[in-house]
Amino acid sequence: MTDLSLYRNIGIFAHVDAGKTTTTERILKLTGKIHKTGEVHDGESTTDFMEQEAERGITIQSAAVSCFWDNHRFNVIDTPGHVDFTVEVYRSLKVLDGGIGVFCGSGGVEPQSETNWRYANESEVARVIFVNKLDRMGADFYRVVDQVEKVLAANPLVMTLPIGVEDDFVGVVDVLTKKAYIWDDTGLPENYKVEDVPADMVDKVEEYHEMLVETSVEQDDDLMMAYMDGEEPSIEDLKRCIRKGTRTMAFFPTYCGSAFKNKGIQLVLDAVVDYLPSPTEVDPQPLTDEEGTETGEHALVSVDEPLRALAFKIMDDRFGALTFVRIYSGKLKKGDTILNSFTGKTERVGRMVEMQADERNELDSAQAGDIIAIVGMKNVQTGHTLCDVKHPCTLEAMVFPEPVISIAVAPKDKGGSEKMGIAIGKMVAEDPSFRVETDEDSGETILKGMGELHLDIKVDILKRTYGVDLEVGQPQVAYRETITQAIEDSYTHKKQSGGSGQFGKIDYRIKPGEPGSGFAFNSVVVGGNVPKEFFPAIEKGFKGMMDEGVLAGFPVLDVEVELFDGAFHAVDSSAVAFEIAAKGAFRQSIPKAGPQLIEPIMHVDVFTPEDHVGDVIGDLNRRRGMIKDQEAGVTGVRIKGDVPLSEMFGYIGSLRTMTSGRGQFSMEFSHYMPCPNQVAEEVIAKEKERKAAK
Fold it and tell me: Which residues fall within 8 angstroms of residue 275, CB to CB, at 6 or more apart?
């Protein structure tokens, strides 16, 4: 069996354009997996193998590759940086043991880096930091280290210092060993010399070496005492301390270089081996029951335990459906029958493959710690647990954000309908943040997603990959409704038409709930005026009505219902009667409770050159935005604010016009807020018109 201590499951994540995919390419080149390095800007990188990725020069799907370095096996996942695809980052982090956070030497800590860093903190993934692109204009390693401290509130442990800046960047100094690594001009990663520290950097290296030693020995009391007594710790001892501190996220070893120019990558690979945890060193995954509550048991990373694995990604390619699986414990062989604990069905494992981006190597068996793909699984979706038939269990499920934007699509020709149905089915299985609904009134197909780019790419995939030509409607905002006043009311449902009748009377209070609370129901009925067995029916009645509000038929959020009294009839009362009473009560009372339209507010992060700050802020204010923060950097200013989604359509075009093409922005859903009256009236009128037209 393979030694698990030689495994490293790592992800590479960062902001758009910080150089994640290029870094992954260099890792594959150095580890001998590819011979010609593909460049992102030529659309030829190994892990960006979708046409849409090659064209736009961005990563959309996380891609998994396996490679070897210094006798260790790396399973590397290159994740997307764009905010519309953060769900890819999130689910990759769920199955990783460590990560490399890549930051751009000139851009520094950018908006998406913050989101990804937050996800990694939540998933408790140990990381090393790689400050990339130090050959770029305006690159400043020390500024980025500063930003990591201030913006991410993280503790970077500087392991290498750059020699030269921008065009003069030639190599790095290893602070731990006080050796300089200098590359020549050939651009080949293996062409470097190890030399003494350049004379003008000796003092700086000493200063950082001292900081490194002081931070490291805090991880070991005995070493710390010895160091305070003037004893210099050995490099082995320091490495052991750095490993411990990295694993507990006390600090993050920080490296620098230029992936594009092949400088500094080897030291990052050594750091992955030296400091990032193997599968056995990470806290084992908790097991949960069907409701998602932790049972107190864990999936111990061991070959001798029963099989426990998590499907974290579904991908459909030219060879058929692939299910990416992280095996936490046990072994898996070709031909095994395994249980999907979510569906309760068993499936036989036909073929297993190890992925090298879109190449694949057939496998006969896999074990705890492996990340593999299984070909042709039928009913498995992202987040499902695969386990031993005799030992059913559920691993902690993944939670995905709700979509905030939708578009209506229809195939251009009649024959496209069936093709579109099959294609969309596959795409929904691949991406849990992408949803599809059919509008009951009009029969239109509604696609829902995380942002304009997200849906744009889905339509593009339908067109090119599946050959379905679509008519695409205008983007629609996911408005919601809520109430603003508390009211007390009573409703009686009574029906007598020969034979047994129906009777149910309820007295209830309806009030606005906490933002984000959804629907809450409780009962304070005493004395049995409404028997307990009818409570679930009453709750079901109210809850079932939350899908359609009274203003414009949008779903209702944040309502609390309290049942405090009522009456029943010994013969005529039934669960159905009380459910109908609750539905009638909802229709009767919500219009009296001050119904209000609420809209999704996006957290917007805009980067602009300094001379355009006034224009950008003025424009955001016109879009009903609230500016929260401004930060001046070397290359420009970051403006953060909250803006209604309805005002952000086509924003990228306006931003580029205002900033002569140099502005960038990202946005993610933040919360719901009441619509101003004028906007609400327009939306309600339009929605009524739309429904009338059908």
Answer: 126, 128, 239, 242, 243, 246, 247, 253
Q: How far apart are CA 581 and CA 584, in angstroms?
A: 5
Q: How far apart are CA 282 and CA 126, in angstroms?
A: 9
Question: In whole angstroms, what is the distance from residue 506 CA to residue 193 CA?
Answer: 83
The residue whose two tokens read 């159905």 is 576
- Is 619:658 a contact under the CB 8 Å cutoff? yes
Closest among 256, 278, 63 to 162, alpha carbons compared: 256
End-to-end CA distance of the chain: 64
* Cβ neighbours of residue 153 closer than 8 Å, sequence gap 6 or more: none
- Write out 2-24 in H/E/C secondary structure: CCHHHEEEEEEEECCCCCHHHHH
Helix/strand number for the chain, H first, E second: 16, 38
* DSSP line for 103-137: EETTTBS-HHHHHHHHHHHHTT-EEEEEEE-TTST
401: which 2 tokens? Answer: 């954000």
Query: In 242-293, at which residue ranges do the beta strands (DSSP E only) sit?
Result: 252-256, 285-288
Q: Token match 């495994």: residue?
A: 7
Distance CA 440, CA 451 (A): 24
Q: Is residue 477 very low, low, confident or very high in pLDDT (cuts 50, 70, 90)?
A: confident
Kind plus residue range of the DSSP H or E element containing 331: strand 331-333
How far is it, in rounded angstroms, from Cα 552 to Cα 683? Answer: 8
What confidence score (pLDDT) does residue 60 get? 34
pLDDT higher than threshold 80 for residue 332:
yes
Query: Which whole-number Å values give the CA distances from 559 to 116, 231, 316, 518, in the listed order?
Result: 32, 65, 41, 6
Average pLDDT score, the chain:
80
Place of tokens 């949960």: 288
**CA dihedral in degrees (477, 483, 484, 488; nearest 10)?**
180
156-168 CB burial, b ≥16 within 10 A, e <16: bbbbbbbbebeee
3-state secondary structure of 637: strand
Give pLDDT tens digits for 8-36. 888 887 655 555 556 666 666 666 544 33
- What's the predicted TM-score (pTM) here? 0.65
Do the Cβ atoms of 133 and 105 come closer than 8 Å?
Answer: yes
CA 643 and chain centroid, separation: 21
69 HSE (CA, 13 A, CB side): 24
For 367, the token pair is 């074990």
Residue 309: Cβ within 10 Å count: 28
